[in-house]
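S.,

As promised, the phosphoric acid mono(formamide)ester run. Input:
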Amino acid sequence: MRHLIDPLDLSKAEAQSLLELAMRIRQDPAAYQEVATHKKLATLFYEPSTRTRLSFEAAMLNLGGHVLGFPSDIVSSATKGESVADTIRIISCYADIAAMRHPKEGAPLRASRYSRIPVINAGDGGHQHPTQTLTDLLTILTRKGRLENLTIGLCGDLKFGRTVHSLIKTMARYEGVRFVLISPEELRVPDYIIKDVLQANNISYTETHSLEDAMPELDILYMTRVQKERFFNEEDYVRLKNSYILTREKMGLAKPDMAVLHPLPRVNEIALDVDDDPRAAYFEQAQNGVYVRMALIMMLLGLTDPKTGKEVSLC
Ligand code: CP
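Predicted complex:
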């Protein structure tokens, strides 16, 4: 049995197979509507979510399966003091696969150690968000036709943004990828990512405070929200929340085929008039989240791909 806790839990070859399956699903979703009949997905969300929880649920429903779960810790027995370990032992009796979001870093990993069903990390604190990364990869691949030889700008809250940490770890495996890290000093990428991922693997990167200076060289601009919920005081959040606002005017500095991604939700960091720019890929990215989660559920459960007649599984 396999879990997906860290983006690197999938080898590069496995990630490639998953993206290929997601692209087959994207081309013909109706062909997949009965592949998970009688299977149940539990969504265990201890922290708010719109996209991740509902796209997981939509994914399982699209595959013909069923969903159960809780959208918040306050309606679960966590409020009575139940541990994550005990909860997953119980959920293993009720469902075939579980997706867990938790404010504590490492909670899904802990759950996986006590689970009899595959556990998917749907975001743990400021740490990792591997299924968002798969969503990002599918969006980059469909927009640019490749995952190699790209200059990727990451802008905003690079300290607390778990989607950024997962994306850097994953994209660092592809040839010729360069990162431009755009943030205020207080929200720089954590040292462990710089040292253990970028420097350890000899990945090219630069750090800057200026979005405008970085724009002309980017193939991908990955905007992020300043993560209010991870700040220790409101004053710091208020000071930093509008550090970067992507406007139509700033888009004028970018390459004509640059793609703008954002894991969403957006607060203020992308002006509404950018939405009509053909380079804005963030709503398409949210749609891609359904296809990659359908593919992931199929692979973790070892289901049969009706297009090939073969069982899809992780090696
Ligand atoms: N991208 C993302 O994780 O969104 P939600 O918080 O709405 O799930």
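Residues 224 and 264 are 7 Å apart (CA to CA). The chain has eleven helices and eleven strands.

- D.
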